[in-house]
Every structure is written in C-alpha cells, then in structure tokens.
Amino acid sequence: MEEMEYKFLKSLSNQYPTIAAASTEIINLQAILNLPKGTEHFLTDIHGEYEQFCHVLKNGSGSVRRKIDEEFGNTLSEKDKKSLATLIYYPREKLELILQTEDNIEDWYKITLHRLVQITKRVSSKYTRSKVRKALPKDFAYIIEELITEKAEIHDKEAYYNEIIHTIIKIGRAPEFIIALSNLIQRLVIDHLHIVGDIYDRGPGPHIIMDTLKQYHSVDVQWGNHDIVWMGAAAGSLACIANVIRMSARYGNLDTLEEGYGINLIPLATFALDTYRNVNCDAFSIKYNTDYNTKDLSLDMKMHKAISMIQFKLEGQIIRRRPEFGMENRLLLDKIDYEKKTVVVDGVAYPIKDTEFPTVDPADPYRLTPEEEVVIDRLRHAFVHCEKLQNHVRFLFAKGSMYKIYNSNLLYHGCVPVDEDGNFQSVNIYGKKYSGRKLYDVLDEYARKGFYSNQDAGEKLKGQDILWYIWTGPYSPVFGKDKMTTFERYFIEDKTTHKEVKNAYYRLLEEESFISRILEEFGLDKDKSRIINGHVPVEIKRGETPIKCGGKLLIIDGGFSKAYQEKTGIAGYTLVANSYGMRLVSHEPFTSAEEAVRNESDIFSDTINVETYRERHRVADTDIGVSLQESIYHLEQLLKAYQLGILIEKDE
C-alpha cells in the first residue's frame, strides 16, 4: 500500500473506526444508489416576477398535481384534486377560507389529513428515512414519521393511525399539522432547483425571490446578464450601479431599490430635480404597470435621465480604460454635433431627438461634473453597505457560476460565443486570449475578484470592469449580442440603429455537429448529454419551439416577465427532470396568489415530454451516484485494510 493511500485510509478510519462501522456505511450507500433519482426543477428568466415564481415553486411545475393523480387516480373527483392541490400550495390561505365555509370542520380535517398523509408517503418513498427525517418540521417530526412509516409490529395499524389523527384534531392542532404536511410535500416533491439566470430587473420583486431561494433546501444558479449587473453594483462598480438604477427607473421599479433593499435614492432625486428641473425629459418615459404611482412620474423621468447620462459617462470611462474590450464603437457622447443636432453611429450621422444635456461638456463629454461625482459616490456607498443586497449577492457567488455541469446536462444562461464560421470566439481578457470553456472560467474568476478582492485594488478594479463587460460586452456569454443599443433607443428615431445582432451561436442551434462540439468542449459525452439554456424568449406566437437540435438543446425562457408575454404568447417555460424522464411545462400568465387560492386555479398548461427513459433512472446514474461509488470504493479499501491487519480497529 502506497504511503498516500495509507494516510488517507488512516484518516478515514477516524470516521469509521471498526469493521462494523465501515460495513454498515457500505451497505447504506449501496442501497442509496438503487433509489430513484431525485426530481430536478429548472427555471430561468424570472425577472422579478415573484408571485408567479413562488407559485411555480410551490406546485413544482405540476409535480404536486401529478403526485395527487398518481395516488388517488379516479377515486377523487377533479374538484377534490384541485382543492387538495391548492391546499398544498397555500395551506394558510386556503385554511382561512375553509374555516369560513365548512359546516363540519372535524370531518373535513379527518378526510384532509388522511389524504395529505397519503401524498406525503408517496413523495417521501424515493428517499432514505434519514433524508426524510432531516426534512421533517421540528414541531411535528415524530408524529409525521409515525404516520408515514409502516409499523410491522402493530396488528391493528388502521386503528393506530386513526387514533393519531383523531388526537391531532381533538387537541386543536389540525391547522398547524396541515400546514406542516403541505410544506413538507412541497419540500419533498422537488429534490433540487436550478435557476438558469436572470432573477433581477423588470419585475417588482427580485429581493423576495432571493429571500425565497436563500431558504430553499437545494439550489444552484447560473448567472444571467441581469444578475451580473446587480452583482457588479454590489461590488461597487459605478457603471453597474448606474445601469441598475436606470433600469429600475425605466420600468417603474425604483421601489425595489428603496423599499426592497433600503437604498437611499434621495441624493439622485435632489440632483435630478435641481439639474433637470427645466430640461426636456420626454425621451426618458417610464414603462410602468398598474401598481405604479403616477404622481412620481415627472420626478422619475428626471431621475431616469440624470442616471442615464451618468451611465453613458461611466461606461465611456471603462471603454477608454480597457481598449482590449474592443468597444470603441459605443463611445457616442463625443460624436454629438450640437449645432446640427446629429450623432454619428458607425460612421453615419443620424438626427438626435434630444441635446439638452446640462452636465455634458462637449470638450470632455465623459467627465462627471462635481455634482455627479457626489451623487454616484453616495450611491456607491449605499450599494456596498446595503446588508441585504450584499447578503443576496454573496449567495449568488456561493451558489452560482457562469455555467454548471449537472447529471450530464450543461446549464448556462446565454450562449457560447462563436465567430460566423462557428469557431469558438477568441476574446482578449487583459492581454491573453480565451475561448470556449476557458472564456467562461476566466470571466467567472474575475467576477469573483471584483466582489471579493480586497488586497489588490488593481485586480479588484479589473474584476469590476469584467462584471460590467459580462453585462454588456460584445463577446459576453450571457449577453450574446454585438452591442447594447441603449443610447440609440433613447435618442435616435431610426430603428435600424436599435438593432442588436445576436451571436452566430443562435443561427447554428439546429446543427447537431455544432451542439456536439460545445458539449465536448465542456467535457461531456455528445451522445448522452444536452444543453439547457435561458436568456432568449421563445416566441410561441411565431411558431418557435423550445426544443432545438432534436432535443440536444432546450431553451426554457418563455416569458416569465410580463414585459415579454405579449411577444412570447405564454408566461414562461419550466423543465422537470425526474427518474422517468424530462418534460417541458408551459405556463399561462399568473394573476395573483389570492385568485389561485379563491378559484383553485393553477397556471401550468401544456406539457411536452422531452425524453422518457427506457429504464427508471437511479441515484447510481447521477453525479451524486458517482461520488457515492467513489466513497464505497474507499470504504471497501478501508475494510480490506482492517481485515488484513494493516489498520487496527478502534474502540468506538
């Protein structure tokens, strides 16, 4: 036995000090390998729509309802199934309505508790007793374990279980027990959650979504461009801060910053009122929804213009500081002719709608005025010292990455940048060229430096500039376009200037050889793996499909954001992968949780079976299974070392 192996086994023997302990763990792990694999749930492009997000999370994209159908079949009416499903999604709210309308509440409790116990048994059956025990709510852990575990030694089981339920009702704990069982069912029906980018922007509640994700039992996040810009803002990138505020203003969501995160926008409001008091701000209209208070409209338009001009200046400073980014064509403030009222874009002069820029010095257009410097410095202080935002972004770094490989699926938000011939695009990152997987890895590395590095100010600034580049750069994997035409959309009528050309990746999606090369680039088997992708809404109304290249690529952005739903025709796709196969679920627009409770309405509609496995997948077929098999191997080596006397058993 080699010295390194001996040292490793000796260390392992501290955890398993006897033959019996090592043998028991081998048996346990081998048994786990033969359990059905857990259900994975994939969501993307949530864009702050917290009510719909929370509902989809509660119903597991139809997984709860499927369990009800499997358990009760034709023994329950459609009405009773809907009522039971709604109770599981919203137990507190539904109970409140039931208590107001039900004549015989004790009978209802008895029937409902029996049904919930049956569903709990079903959803817990694929897990070890240990894993289920860890998920049990503390207040009712012992009782639930008794109810969902068969007791062979009890002769009259029915009487035993009925008496438990009768006692729960008798002592007045039925409502709390129903809530506990409903939450447990939600917890067990999904084993792991994947968020394939874009939690932030457009919708009103990204902070609520983040709070929910932080409490979720098992989750990973692939960063989207809209997440990255918030991460950059939390890191202190001035350009990212300006972008975050501008988008919040544009979509009437400044409340997210002020009330959701407690970020003080008074310095910006005061500056905007003073500097833009008599300035034309028509180009900076607000795309608000029904919750928006229009009394704030005039001020918000002024703030919108003020922060936009600061943004254009700050971005110009980065572009000049980082010529390797190759974004000189985005320097437009110095291309304005104030006499002719034109701006030159890509060598062509276009009429410009607005030239009232009181803070822009034509001789040095990218310099902030002293007043702007004060404003952005105070905003930076607010972002980097916002405890809630910092907490959320640390979570995104801890649970997130530019891409993830999980159970033979490659998950990323945007695209793998390629040139027109489909070759992986070579990108200059601080003097060195990267492409394919290495480009993702180096961007991930610099993004983390931008947030965490405190020893080297130069590296931290490089990281912050990379965070901004990932948000808007021409070869950013999560942006996927040649440019972001924010300036043109505000100031130029000619819509040809608004066009943002997608990376050639999107043109090549149906070519199997292209998708296979991407999978191989990330170390995956091209015949057994697939890509799961977000970012670009699938326009069902135009006949588009989320299934590309014969199912080797799935694009699951269907318009969670209300801003996209008119364009897509639905309210988002989600993906569910369980031990039987994979299915795509399309969702109807969500109105409110209140309506879902009162009318017992759900929002998933059509289901598309992407793949049905010939044999049910087990834990052994997953990444966790590979890890468990490695553990079994090492435990078998430890067992052999004990049996040969190389290591001596310890007294436990």
Mind explaining what this structure looks like?
The structure is a single chain. This protein has a seven-stranded mixed beta sheet with strand order 7-3-2-1-15-16-17. Strands 8-9-12-14-13 form a five-stranded mixed beta sheet, with no helix packed on it. Helices cover 50% and strands 10% of the residues. Helix 4 (63-72) crosses helix 5 (78-89). It contains 26 helices and 17 strands. The mean pLDDT is 92. With 652 residues, it is an alpha/beta fold.
Layout of helices and strands:
Blueprint: H1 3-15, H2 19-33, E1 40-43, H3 50-59, H4 63-72, H5 78-89, H6 91-101, H7 105-124, H8 129-135, H9 141-148, H10 157-170, H11 174-189, E2 192-195, H12 206-215, E3 219-222, H13 225-235, H14 238-250, H15 254-260, H16 266-275, H17 297-321, E4 336-337, E5 342-345, E6 348-351, H18 370-384, H19 387-399, E7 400-401, E8 403-406, E9 409-412, E10 427-429, E11 432-434, H20 436-452, H21 457-472, H22 486-491, H23 512-521, E12 530-533, E13 547-548, E14 553-555, H24 562-568, E15 573-577, E16 581-587, H25 593-599, E17 604-612, H26 623-644
Parallel strand pairs: 1-2, 2-3, 3-7, 9-12, 12-14
Antiparallel strand pairs: 1-15, 4-5, 5-6, 8-9, 10-11, 13-14, 15-16, 16-17
Helix pairs in contact: 1-26, 2-26, 4-5, 5-6, 7-11, 13-14, 13-19, 13-20, 13-21, 14-17, 16-17, 20-21
Q: Count every helix, treating DSSP H or I runs of 4 or more residues as helices.
A: 26
Helical fraction equals: 40-55%
* Structural class by sheet pairing and helices: alpha/beta
Compute the average pLDDT: 92
Query: What portion of the residues fall into strands of 2 or more residues?
Result: 5-15%
Q: Which regions have little confidence, pLDDT < 50, spanning 5+ residues?
A: none
Strand order, largest beta sheet: 7-3-2-1-15-16-17
Largest sheet geometry: 7 strands, mixed
Radius of gyration: 28 Å
